[in-house]
Predict the 3D structure of the following.
Amino acid sequence: MEIRRDRYLNKIISFMWDGQVKVITGIRRCGKSYLLRVLFKNYLLGQGVPENHVLSYELDLTRDIRYRNPLELAGTVRNAVEGSDEKFYLFVDEIQMSDEVPNPYNPDGKKITFYDALNDLNSIPNLDIYVTGSNSKMLSSDILTEFRGRSDEIRVHPLSFSEYYSAVGGDKYDAFDEYAFYGGMPLVLSRPDDSAKMEYLSSLFSEVYLKDIVERKKTKRQDVLSAVIDFLCSSVGSLTNPNRVANAINSMQRLSGADTVSGNTVKSYIDCLSDSFLFTECKRWDVKGKNYFDYPSKYYCEDVGLRGARIGFRQQEMTHIMENIIFNELIIRGYSVDVGVVYSNEKNAKGRSVPTAREIDFIATAGGKKTYIQSAYALGNEEKAVQENKPLSLTGDTFPKIIVRQDIRKRWYDDSGVLNIGIIDFLLDDI
């Protein structure tokens, strides 16, 4: 089964031979390697590129372990391409597994890293470089400084629903039910039954993601890391902050004294989870005040199937799952996403008018344009409809406003110009 990833493939193609190192990032097992070594390679071969002009190294495999040494990698590639008039392509998979090695000319000086190797190779005019990696701290925040502005980043995510549906076909409502339960990790599609899918997703958390974090960060409190993950998975779409998470862990595990978990410790673990692309923070934005709140924030899981596996598929609240799916879809489409906060004057118990904060689930921004989006599983009565529409009416601007719903199939606009659209229609319509 070939899964089309045209959004990412077209982006890679648009960056070809631009003089930059192409860095393809994303959570492990989301399809980065498949995108590069199958889809993009097939594109190159279809354009007439000889197969031996595509140099490929997979640093997570034993057969290529020698190339974790950046000097070995740089030397081997230089020997293969220098002096030729023909064009070559370099693929390096899981580049974060590269080692830092001593400078042979100055053993006590700064160590040689993969950044040095790739910057060196990038100076070869007949070589176009593509690397994948699964750690944002190594491959995102440091890109501009370490690659000295000579890199493009292509962020890859698990399958969107449209990608998932293009592979499985059939009834789109049945497909969405499966997607909402098992998520979009590509290899889930090849698992033969429910038990195998659950086992695969659970093993990803325990055998891949957790081990990666523990080994890379040398995590001392693995019990706390696990508790933080469980808390974030259980509270998807809810406002929280590191201190609240710490207090919950201390209470649930009855920790005291030296064993007590601090908010700073929790924050460092949340940062680790974000660096590994497992969770994304969504900050609150004051729509009229035009500033961010420090806390609380919301956290969304990169894949709803992984989230379900972590908590044993016990908490299947469709309201939260649907909200997580919409958030991920907006990120995949290239939007920056915030939680919106607006205020209305409402009477308190004493009859006094006081400012009351109301929430807009998402403000999706791209190219200076905003779209306000509410996620509503169902608007079964007038009270619920007013609750969802009220924040949208308080923005004070004319940017588009959408309510994404599970309980309708045909889209329509209300008297205020708010688009009501079904979740499946929303996910399958790029416009």
Remarks:
- Residues 361 and 405 are 13 Å apart (CA to CA).
